[in-house]
Design a protein that fits this description.
The complex is a heterodimer.
Chain A: H1 3-20, H2 32-36, H3 49-60, H4 66-79, H5 94-104, H6 109-127, H7 136-143, H8 160-177, H9 180-186, H10 201-207, H11 213-218
Chain B: E1 4-15, H1 19-30, E2 35-38, E3 80-81, E4 90-91, E5 101-102, H2 121-124, H3 126-130, H4 140-154, H5 179-190, E6 196-197, H6 232-242, E7 247-250, E8 253-260, E9 266-273, E10 278-289, H7 293-302, E11 327-334, E12 355-356, E13 372-378, H8 408-416, E14 420-427, E15 436-444, E16 450-455, H9 460-479, E17 483-484, E18 533-535, H10 550-569
Parallel strand pairs in B: 1-2, 1-10, 2-7, 4-16, 10-18
Antiparallel strand pairs in B: 3-5, 6-12, 8-9, 9-10, 11-14, 11-17, 13-14, 15-16
Helix pairs in contact in B: 1-6, 1-10, 4-10, 5-9
The chains are: A mainly alpha, B alpha/beta.
C-alpha cells in the first residue's frame, strides 16, 4: 500500500474503507461525511426538533476540501498514532469531528484552514512537496517547530502556526477521548448505575489520605438506601 | 385579531412551572382547587426517551457536549439560555446583567445544582446586624415549619450540625466524600475554613414509592429519569396530577399580562400560544405568578389598566427594583497529590459537591458586610468537549516542555486526569433600589410583548467580597499542596466578580414588606394593591442570603398556598 492509500484508509476508517477506496489515488469526489457515519454516532440524545435541524444543516455543508481532510488525517495521526492497545486519531474518526466543530464554532475556521495552508507552504518551501505526502521524518521536522508552547506568553499572542497546532492538538485529543475507544483507553468507569460507597482503600493509601470516622458515621449506609426515610420530631433519621 | 376567551373559570391560574409554580400547583391542586398552569415552554418529562440526555455518552453528540447550542453544554437540560432568539432584553447606561431563562415544564429546576440551603435566622434580619438593606417582614421561625415540610416532601441530604445560621433540617444521609473532597477538607481546615457535608436535593435514600433512589451518575444537570433529584415537573406537578388534581396544563403559552376588572381586581391572564401565535384569555379567581423574578415583574409592569396605570401592583413604583443576584467568583487549582490516579473505580457520585463550606467569617472585621459559601468541583469526570485541552500544561510546574505530539500525550492525559479542582464562592450582595429591571419602551419580543431593560451595578462591598474569595481559594489550594491556576484577578477585573445575573439567583423584584409604600407584596406574597394576585417565585425576596434561593422559594410558595386556601375558606378573596 502506498502512502496515499494508507492516508485514505486512515481517513475513512475500517468500516467505510471498502466502500470508498478502490485505487491507490484518492478520489476527489468522496463525500467524507456520508461515509464517516458509524452506528456509534447516531445523535439520538434528546434533541428538540429545532436542534435536530441545526445538526442536519451543519452536516449538509462541507467546510474542508478533500485535500484539507487528508492533510488533517495525517496531522491528527501524527499527534495521536495508534499504540499496541488502541487505535489512532483517525481510527476514532477525529477528522470528521474536527470538520463538524469547524462549522459549529465558525471562529475556528480561519485558524484551522490558515494553519493547514501554513503546513503546506512550509512543506513546499523546505522539502518541495505538500505536507501530507512528505515522509514522517520530514513531517516531524516541521511539527517540531510549532508543537511546543511558550507558557509565559498567552497563546493568543503566539504565532499563528503555534496557535493552530495547539488547537489541532486540543481537538484531536478531545475528539479521541470522547469516543468509545478513547474512554476505554482512559479507563473512565462511570456513566452507569452505581452505588457510591467511598474511595477504595488502595486509592486512599496511594494518595495519603483517610476518612474521618466521625464524618463516615454521618454518611449513608448503602444497605438501607431502599428503606423509606422516617424521622423523629427533631430531624433524627430513624430508618 | 380576536382574542379567544375560554369559558372555564379556574380557581387559580399559575404562571410558570418551576420551583415556585410547581409547589403552588401541588398544594393548591391537592387542596381540591381547579388549577391552570401556564408555561411558556414545551412539556418535559425527564424519563421521556425523546427528550432524555441522562446516561448518554459524549460521542452521541456530534459536538461531544460542547456549548454552541445549549449554553451549559449539549446534554444540559435547560431549553433556553442567556439569549433566546426572538426574545431579547436590553440594558441601560452601559450596565451589565445576564438573564438566564429556561422555557419548559419545570423551568430551571430541571438542570439546577440542587444545592438546597435554608436561610438562617440572621438572613431574614440582616439589617439588624449591619444596617444594610432591609429586614424581611418574617423571620426564620415563620418559615421553619415550611422548610421542614419541604425537606420531607422533596428530600434533601445533609447533616444536622447545630450551626447558628445554617439551620438543621430533616436530612437524608449524605454520600461519602470523593478523593478530591478529602484533599479539600484537609486544605480548608488548615485555613480554619469549616467543611461539612453538602445539602442537596437528591435522594440518597428512598422517600416514597413514586420516586427512585440516586444511582450516582453525577448527571443531575440532565434531569433524573428515575426522579431521584428535585425537578419541579417530576416531583411536584406529576404527583399532583396522579393524585387526581384538577390541573390543566397550557404549554408553549407566553403570558402577556394579568387582566383586571373595573374594580382593579385580577380576572385572569392573557397569553400568546406559540404554536398558532394567537392571543387567548383564561379566567380565574386568583392569579399566582411564578414566572421567575424578572419575568413576573415584566408581566406586572405590562399589565397596565385604568385602575393600574403604572402596572399591576406597582403603586409603590418598586416593581422591578431591588433586583439582586448572588455574587460569584471561582478559581481552579492543580493538585499534584491528585496525579497518577487509578481509574479502577466509578466516582461519579451525585451531581456536584459532596462537601461544602458554609460562611465562617466575622463581617464586622472585614471590608464587606455579607458572607459567601464555597462550592467545590473536581474528580475523574466523564470526558466531553474540552477534555484534554492543554493536555500537559502542568508540565510547566515540573520544568518540562509543554506541548508536543505522539503517544506520550496518552500518558500525559492519564497523569493529569482528575488532578484539577475548582472552588467557587457564592455570596450575598446588598439589595439596592437602583439595581432594577423595567420595561424598555422601544423594544418588543416576537410576540409583541414589551421586553425588560436592566440597570445593575455592583458596589465595593461585592468586589471586596470577591477579593476575599480569591485570597481564600489561593490559600486553600496551596494547603492542598496545589497551585492556583491563572493569576489573581485585579481591581480592574472587579477581583474576578462575575457579572450580575451570572449566578442565576436573581431575586427581589417584587419584594415583600409590611409597608405598601416600600414593598410590592405582603408577607404572604400577596400584592398590596390587588388581593387576588400572588407571587411565588424569588421576586418577593427582601434579600438573597449566601444560600441558594430554591429551598426558600419552595417553602414560601407552600406558605402562600396555605394562606390562599385559608383565605378562600374564609371567603376573603
Amino acid at each position: 500500500m502506498d502512502r496515499r492509500k494508507s492516508i485514505k484508509s486512515l481517513l475513512l476508517g475500517g468500516v467505510a474503507t471498502g466502500l470508498a477506496v478502490h485505487g491507490c489515488k484518492p478520489k476527489d469526489d468522496v463525500n467524507i461525511n456520508n461515509v464517516e457515519r458509524l452506528d456509534e454516532f447516531k445523535y439520538n440524545y434528546g434533541r428538540t426538533p429545532k436542534e435536530k435541524q441545526q445538526i442536519e444543516a451543519l452536516e449538509a455543508k462541507q467546510f474542508f476540501n478533500t485535500h484539507e481532510m487528508e492533510t488533517l488525517a495525517v496531522l491528527c495521526d501524527l499527534i495521536l498514532p495508534a499504540n499496541d492497545k488502541f487505535g489512532s486519531a483517525t481510527d476514532a474518526k477525529v477528522p470528521a469531528f474536527i470538520e463538524f466543530m469547524a462549522k459549529d464554532f465558525p471562529d475556528m475556521k480561519v485558524t484551522l484552514r490558515g494553519g493547514l495552508m501554513w503546513l503546506d507552504h512550509t512543506a513546499n518551501t523546505k522539502f518541495g512537496s505538500e505536507f501530507k505526502i512528505l515522509n514522517e521524518s520530514q513531517q516531524k521536522q516541521i511539527l517540531d517547530t510549532i508543537a511546543f508552547i511558550n507558557t509565559k506568553v498567552h497563546i493568543s499572542k503566539q504565532p499563528l502556526e503555534i496557535q493552530f497546532f495547539a488547537l489541532i492538538r486540543n481537538l484531536t485529543l478531545t475528539g479521541y477521548y470522547t469516543t468509545k475507544m478513547g474512554i476505554e483507553d482512559l479507563g473512565y468507569k462511570g456513566n452507569q448505575p452505581n452505588v457510591w460507597d467511598g474511595v477504595p482503600d488502595d486509592v486512599l493509601a496511594q494518595h495519603g489520605v483517610a476518612y474521618d470516622e466521625d464524618w463516615l458515621a454521618k454518611c449513608i449506609d448503602q444497605s438501607k438506601r431502599n428503606i423509606t426515610a422516617e424521622w423523629d420530631d427533631k430531624g433524627n433519621l430513624l430508618t | 385579531m380576536q382574542i379567544r376567551e375560554s369559558s372555564t373559570l379556574y380557581d387559580v391560574i399559575i404562571v410558570g412551572s418551576g420551583a415556585g409554580g410547581g409547589m403552588a400547583t401541588k398544594q393548591l391542586a391537592d387542596a381540591g382547587l381547579k388549577v391552570a398552569v401556564v408555561e411558556a415552554g414545551p412539556f418535559f418529562d425527564p424519563k421521556d426517551p425523546e427528550q432524555m440526555t441522562q446516561m448518554k455518552w459524549p460521542w452521541e453528540s456530534p459536538r461531544r457536549g460542547a456549548n454552541s447550542v445549549r449554553p451549559m453544554g449539549d446534554f444540559d437540560m435547560a431549553y433556553g439560555g442567556w439569549e433566546i432568539e426572538g426574545e431579547p432584553y436590553t440594558h441601560k447606561d452601559d450596565t451589565k446583567f445576564k438573564w438566564f431563562r429556561s422555557h419548559m415544564l419545570g423551568g430551571r429546576t430541571n438542570h439546577w445544582g440542587r444545592i438546597s440551603l435554608r436561610f438562617g435566622p440572621k438572613d431574614f434580619k440582616h439589617k439588624d446586624v449591619d444596617g444594610f438593606g432591609d429586614n424581611w417582614p418574617i423571620g426564620y421561625e415563620d418559615v421553619k415549619p415550611y422548610y421542614d415540610k419541604v425537606d420531607k416532601l422533596i428530600g434533601v441530604f445533609g447533616t444536622n450540625e447545630g450551626l447558628p445560621n445554617d439551620p438543621d433540617g430533616f436530612f437524608l444521609p449524605p454520600p461519602k466524600p470523593r478523593l478530591h473532597e478529602l484533599f479539600y477538607i484537609k486544605g480548608a481546615r488548615k485555613s480554619n475554613v469549616p467543611v461539612i457535608p453538602s445539602r442537596m436535593s437528591m435522594l440518597t435514600k428512598r422517600i416514597n414509592s413514586e420516586r427512585g433512589v440516586c444511582f450516582y451518575c453525577g448527571q443531575c444537570g440532565r434531569s433524573c429519569s428515575v426522579y431521584a433529584d428535585f425537578s419541579s415537573g417530576s416531583c411536584l406537578i406529576f404527583p399532583a396530577q396522579k393524585n387526581g388534581g384538577q390541573i390543566d396544563l397550557f404549554i408553549n403559552s407566553v403570558v402577556r399580562e394579568v387582566t383586571t376588572d373595573e374594580e382593579g381586581k385580577a380576572t385572569g391572564v392573557s397569553y400568546i400560544n406559540k404554536d398558532d401565535r394567537k392571543e387567548y384569555k383564561l379566567k380565574s379567581k386568583i392569579v399566582v405568578l411564578a414566572a421567575s423574578a424578572c419575568s413576573s415583574a415584566r408581566i406586572l409592569l405590562n399589565s397596565k389598566s385604568k385602575q393600574h396605570p403604572n402596572g399591576l401592583g406597582n403603586s409603590s413604583n418598586l416593581v422591578g427594583k431591588y433586583l439582586h443576584d448572588s455574587t460569584g467568583s471561582s478559581r481552579a487549582g492543580f493538585i499534584p497529590g491528585l496525579m497518577n490516579r487509578k481509574t479502577s473505580y466509578n466516582e461519579d457520585g451525585v451531581g456536584g459537591l459532596h462537601v461544602y463550606s458554609p460562611w465562617w467569617g466575622d463581617n464586622s472585621k472585614l471590608d464587606f458586610p455579607r458572607g459567601y459559601h464555597i462550592e467545590l468541583w473536581g474528580g475523574m469526570g466523564m470526558p466531553s468537549y474540552g477534555f484534554a485541552f492543554n493536555v500537559n500544561e502542568f508540565n510547566k510546574f515540573f520544568g518540562l516542555k509543554v506541548g508536543g505530539y505522539g503517544n506520550s500525550l496518552r500518558d500525559d492525559v492519564k497523569k493529569y486526569y482528575g488532578a484539577v479542582v475548582g472552588l467557587a464562592g457564592r455570596g450575598e450582595s446588598i439589595a439596592r433600589v437602583d439595581n432594577y429591571c423595567e420595561i424598555d419602551p422601544t423594544t418588543v419580543d416576537q410576540f409583541g410583548i414589551p421586553v425588560l431593560r436592566f440597570h445593575y451595578k455592583w458596589s465595593d462591598f461585592e468586589r471586596n467580597q470577591a477579593k476575599h474569595m480569591h485570597q481564600t481559594f489561593e490559600e486553600i489550594i496551596q494547603n492542598m499542596g496545589g497551585e492556583p491556576l491563572g493569576s489573581t484577578p485585579t481591581k480592574e477585573q472587579d477581583y474576578g466578580l462575575l457579572e450580575p445575573g451570572r449566578v442565576i439567583h436573581e431575586v427581589g423584584t417584587t419584594r415583600m414588606g409590611n409597608d405598601s409604600k416600600k414593598s410590592v407584596t405582603n408577607e404572604f406574597q400577596q400584592l398590596h394593591d390587588v388581593d387576588n394576585v400572588f407571587i411565588v417565585d424569588a421576586g418577593p425576596f427582601v434579600s438573597q442570603a449566601d444560600k441558594n434561593c430554591t429551598w426558600t422559594i419552595l417553602a414560601l410558595s407552600w406558605r402562600t398556598s396555605d394562606y390562599i386556601i385559608d383565605q378562600l375558606k374564609k371567603q376573603n378573596i
